[in-house]
Design a protein that fits this description.
By secondary structure, the protein is α+β, with helices and mostly antiparallel strands. It is built from three helices and six strands. It has a four-stranded antiparallel β-sheet, covered by helices on one side. The structure holds ligand 2BA. Ligand 2BA binds next to β5.
């Protein structure tokens, strides 16, 4: 078994959960916050059989879009004074995905 952990944009959350649920995948949805932008995002935990991983990744890839966002971070302002007072464009997503081995899967 594998655990797919996907950090996605809040705006893709509804559509992705709908698609994965429709195909019978079990999902846990967590409200999370990106360490860089410090804004909300969504983290999904999806436990699946090894042979299902590629299918899950395909659904995630086809659903989650890359978006441009703007920020001014204190760290960049500190390190690069030319950024002071100017918005910085960052490309967010489509999805940041980790695929982990599951040692045991237990339900009590
Ligand atoms: P954030 O940490 O809020 O990062 C949002 C976007 O800001 C990132 O998009 C990236 O394009 C940019 N970014 C992050 N750190 C940066 C830095 N030090 N300098 C310049 N730009 C930076 P994504 O890479 O698509 O990441 C989206 C979200 O996925 C992240 O939100 C974070 O919540 C999560 N994430 C990304 N990589 C991760 C990792 N290695 N471990 C854990 N979570 C991760």
């Amino acid at each position: 078994m594998k655990l797919v952990v996907a950090v996605i944009h809040d705006e893709d959350n509804h559509e992705l959960v709908k698609k994965l649920s429709k195909r019978g995948y079990n999902i846990t949805k967590l409200a999370s916050t990106g360490g860089f932008l410090k804004t909300g995002n969504t983290t999904l935990m999806i436990g699946v059989a090894v042979e299902e991983v590629d299918h899950v990744l395909e659904i995630i890839e086809n659903t989650c879009q890359t978006r441009k966002e703007y920020t001014m971070t204190s760290s960049m302002i500190g390190e690069t004074s030319s950024f002071m007072g100017q918005p910085i464009e960052v490309s967010v997503g489509g999805a940041t995905v980790f695929v982990l081995d599951v040692d045991q899967f237990i339900k009590f």
